[in-house]
Amino acid sequence: MATPAASSAPLIEKHTIGYVPPEDRHGKVRDLFTLWFGGNIAPLPIVTGALGVQLFHLNLLWGIVAILVGHLVGGVLMALHSAQGPQMGIPQMIQSRAQFGSLGALLVVLIAGVMYIGFFASNIVLAGKSLHGVVDSVPVPVGIVIGAFGSGIIGIIGYRFIHVLNRIGTWVLGIGIVVGFGYIFTHIQTDDFLTRGSFNLSGWLATVSLAALWQIAFAPYVSDYSRYLPADVKVSSTFWTTYLGSALGSSLAFIFGAVAVLATPVGMDTMDAVKLATGSIGPLMLVLFLLSVISHNALNLYGAVLSLITLVQTFAYRWIPTAKSRAVISIIVLLACCFAAVGASKDFIGHFVDMVLVLLVVLVPWTAINLIDFYAIHKGQYDIQSIFQVDGGIYGRYNPQALLAYAIGIAVQIPFMNTPLYVGPVSAHINGADLSWLVGLLVTSPLYFWLANRDTSYRRRMMGGKLAGSL
User: Which GO MF terms does the UniProt record name (predicted)?
Assistant: First the structure.
C-alpha cells in the first residue's frame, strides 16, 4: 500500500527517532520481503551457517534440517516485531520505554547498540576479505575501509535508499546464489560430501539455536524498517512479508555456507571454501557478496546510530535530532569501527559470534516482554507523547513489573547457557547445546503477562492516559 508521500519522500531521511506522521508515510509492504531476503544473502550468514558442519559436525541432511527449524522458529519473533512498525511509527528501541520506563529501557538500548556496532565491525572485516579475494592487490585493511565507507554512505542517506538497494539486491543475489548452488552441486571436490559428519543431538540443537538467534538478533531494530509504512496496512501483511523474506534469505545463506564447506577439503576458511567450490564463477560470487555486505551492513550502522541517539535523547529530552545529527554520529561510529577492525585479530569473526551469544542472553527476555506487552497487554495502543517525555509520562521512569520479569528471564537462562564466558550445568550435561534462549522465552512471556495484569495501579494510569496507535 502506497501513499502520495511515496513519490515525494526525500532521498535523504529527515527523521531519526521521532514519530513519523501520516503525511510522511510511504512505501509498500512487499518492500519488507526484499529488504530481509536480499539483506540476508551475505558473507556473515554464510560463515555462520557453515558452523553447523564445521564446528558441530553435522552431516548435510541434519545440518539443513537444523538450519530450517531454527530460522522458521526464530523468524516468527522477528516478524512480530516488524509488524509493530506501521502501528507505532517510531523505532523499536525508543518504543521499549513503554514497557520498561524512560530510564528502565536504557540497559536494553545500550546492549542493542553494542551488538549492532559489533555486527557492523564484523561485516566490514568480511567486506575487506571479499575485496581482497576479488582484487589481490587490495590489502584487507584497505578493503575494510572501503567497505565501511560504502556502508556509511548508504546508512547516512537512510531508510528509503536502503529499501531501494535491497529491491535490486533481491533479484541479483537471489539469482546469484541459485547459480552458485548449481555450480557447487555439479563440481563437488570431495568424496565425503554427503557422509562427512553425522547426527548428534547437541550439535543439532546448537545449530538450531544459532539459526534462531540469528533471527532474534534482528528484533531490536526490525520495526525501524517498517515504521514509514502507512498505519492502516494489515498486521498480517507486514508479518508475512518480513517472515518469508528473512527466513528464506537467511536459510539459503546458511545452507550455502554448509554446502560450500562440505564440497571442499576439511579445514578451509569458509569464504575460501566458497571461492574454491564455485570455481570459475567464484570471483563473480565474491563480487556479489561484497556488494551485499556493504549494502546490508548499512542496516547495522543505521540501527546502532538510532540506539545511540535514543540513549542521548533520554537525558537531553529537549534535543530534536536531525539528519545532520544522524550523519555525524554515523561517521564517528564508522571511524571507530574501522580502527578496531583493522587492528583486530584474525579470529575477529569468531570472537564476534561469541559476543553475540552472550548479548542475546539479555536480549531474549526483552523480546518476550515487548511482544507480550504489545500484542497481549496493550494490543497496540500506546501514548506516543508519553514515550518521548523525560519522566516517561504514564509509563514512568521505571516499570517494576517489566524489570522483575526481565531479571528473572536472564537468571533462568544461566544453567542452560553455553558461551565463552560461562557454560551452565544443564548445557554441559547435554554436550554443550545452548537452550538458554528457549528457556528465557518460555519463562519470561507468561511471567510478564501475569505481573502486568496484577499491576492494577498501572492499568488505571493507562486508562486515564491518551492512547494512540491501535491495531
Answer: transmembrane transporter activity
In a domain, 15, yes or no: no
Q: Which amino acid is at 139?
A: P
- Give the whole-angstrom CA distance, residue 412 versus residue 440: 7
Domain that holds residue 339: 25-349
177 part of a folded domain: yes
Contact criterion met (CB below 8 Å) for 53 and 59: yes
Please give the single-letter amino acid code of residue 293: V
Q: How many domains does the chain have?
A: 1
Burial category of 275 from C-beta neighbours within 10 Å (exposed 0-12, middle 13-18, buried 19 and up): buried
Residue with cell 571461492: 275
Q: What is the structure's pLDDT at 138?
A: 86
Q: 9-18 burial string, b = 16+ CB within 10 Å, else e?
A: beeebebbbb
Q: How far apart are CA 49 and CA 133, in angstroms?
A: 20
Residue-wise pLDDT tens digits, 303-353: 888 888 888 888 877 777 777 888 888 899 888 888 887 776 566 656 666
Query: At what angle are helices 323-342 and 140-157 packed, to 10 degrees?
Result: 160
With contact defined as beta carbons under 8 Å apart, do 213 and 20 qualify?
no
- The answer to whether position 462 is within a domain reads no
At residue 454, what is the residue type? Answer: R
| Tens-digit pLDDT profile for residues 213-249 | 899 988 888 888 898 899 889 999 999 999 999 999 9
Question: Any idea what DSSP says for residue 9?
Answer: -
CA distance 306 to 109: 9
Question: Mapping DSSP to helix (H, G, I), strand (E, B) and coil, where does residue 423 land?
Answer: strand
419 lies in some domain = no
CA-CA distance, 155 to 162, in Å (whole number)? 7
Arithmetic mean of pLDDT, 189-205: 88
Tell me, what CATH number does 179's domain have? 1.10.4160.10
Query: For residue 379, what is the DSSP state?
Result: T
What region does 322 belong to: left with phi over 0, alpha with psi -120 to 50, or beta? beta
d(CA 254, CA 51): 9
Q: Whole-angstrom Cα distance, residue 211 to residue 62?
A: 13
**pTM score of the predicted model:** 0.86
Query: Which segment of 277-281, 286-290, 455-459 scores lowest on mean pLDDT?
Result: 455-459
How far is 170 from 249, CA to CA, in rounded Å?
9
Residue 69, classified by CB atoms within 10 Å of its CB into exposed (0-12), middle (13-18) or buried (19+), is: middle
State the Cα–Cα distance between residues 123 and 146, nearest whole angstrom.
12
For residue 416, how far is the Cα from the chain centroid?
A: 23
